[in-house]
Design a protein that fits this description.
Blueprint (H helix, E strand, L loop, with lengths): L1 H5 L1 H24 L3 H24 L6
Length: 64
């Protein structure tokens, strides 16, 4: 998990993929699919939204 936060391309890519997965799941879960899709989508949305701020707070770049 720590290695994910050290590579900016990796954590931003992971966050983007979680957003891409979350939006259709939320849509399907609210319209016709099982409610589990809604909750999985909301969890993915929250995790995807929290990755960049957590990286900045816990693994900030070192000052010269």
């Amino acid at each position: 998990m720590v290695a994910l936060f050290k590579n900016p391309l990796a954590y931003l890519g992971t966050s983007f993929v979680l957003f891409l997965i979350a939006l259709p799941l939320i849509s399907i879960g609210t319209t016709s699919g099982p409610r589990l899709y809604l909750w999985v989508g909301l969890v993915a949305l929250c995790i995807g939204g929290l990755i960049p701020p957590v990286q900045r707070l816990l693994f900030a770049p070192k000052l010269p």
